[in-house]
Design a protein that fits this description.
Helix content: over 70%
Strand order of the largest sheet: 2-1-3
Distance between the termini: 53 Å
Oligomer: single chain
Number of strands: 3
Strand content: under 5%
Largest sheet: 3 strands, antiparallel
Number of helices: 11
CATH class: Mainly Alpha
Order of helices and strands: EHHHHHHHHEHHEH
CATH topology: Fumarate Reductase Cytochrome B subunit
CATH superfamily: Transmembrane di-heme cytochromes, Chain C
Length: 270
């Protein structure tokens, strides 16, 4: 069976570091957010105390910020140095476009058996939402986190009430982000029937021809019509890479869902 490249090695590495940093931030941040919960106390003691947990939380914050800045720098490189066409608009762009609204409506109709499944292209509307959610998170959670981390510096020119707002915003937005990633994103990427129990494309970088034609028929047909499909042909991913993806993916999903249910317990027992 033919396979085609979907993600480059650099994109997969960046996603891997993003996944690691996010899981690390939630694992070390939520026990601080719900410090009175029994599981949070146990986890903090296991890691050496809340002080050590705070150190790791800031370490993962730096890792996530580094991933974000590297990605933004790569975007500017592709725009200004390589001058790639279609990066900000068109069928290969992650920018939300009128087509996404149309496909959302078609998808809802398909859910209720009222129409055919949309012919998705390179990126679906929910993938674009997930992508820009990172920018939203860095703007709100990241900015408030750095204000709280370097409060002595920021107190030189920010009023005191800003730190109270930053504390509130940081915790609540982080809670929202964790809930979204561990439910909506996990379901769309791995737990929906077509992909269950694990979508390996982000680990292998490759997709089978059958999956390509089924999941993204609009992109497949366009590439075939443009004569660009053959250039993306790839060998099937080796067994070790598929097994590696399964181990890492299942571990990440298990940790994420476990944290989600622990957070629910802490919220409803407050």
């Amino acid at each position: 069976m033919s396979h085609y490249f979907r993600f480059t090695l650099g994109e997969r590495f960046l996603h891997g570091f993003l996944m690691l940093s996010f899981l690390g931030l939630v694992t070390t941040g939520m026990p601080l957010r719900f410090s009175q919960a029994g599981w949070a106390i146990w986890l903090s003691h296991t890691m050496g105390g809340f002080g050590v947990m705070g150190f790791f939380h800031r370490t993962f914050a730096v890792l996530l910020s580094t991933c974000f800045l590297l990605h933004v720098a790569h975007i500017f490189y592709r725009l200004w140095i390589r001058k790639e066409p279609g990066l900000l608009w068109g069928p290969y762009s992650l920018t939300p476009q009128p087509r996404d609204i149309l496909e959302l409506g078609q998808h809802i109709r398909w859910f209720f058996g009222l129409g055919p499944r949309p012919r998705f292209g390179r990126f679906t509307y929910w993938e674009k939402f997930d992508y820009f959610a990172v920018f939203w998170g860095m703007a709100i959670i990241g900015a408030s986190g750095y204000v709280l981390w370097f409060k002595t510096f920021f107190s030189n020119f920010l009023p005191g009430w800003i730190f109270n707002v930053a504390f509130l915003v940081h915790g609540e937005e982080a809670l929202l982000a964790a809930g979204f990633i561990f439910t909506i994103h996990f379901f769309n990427s791995h737990l929906r029937p077509e992909r269950f129990p694990m979508d390996l494309v982000m680990f292998t970088g490759r997709v089978s021809e059958a999956e390509f034609r089924e999941e993204r028929p609009e992109e497949y047909d366009r590439l075939a019509a443009e004569g660009r499909l053959a250039a993306l042909e790839a060998d099937p991913p080796p067994l070790w890479l598929r097994n590696f993806g399964r181990i890492v993916g299942v571990t990440a999903v298990t940790i994420g869902l476990s944290l989600f249910f622990l957070i629910l317990i802490a919220v409803f027992r407050r």
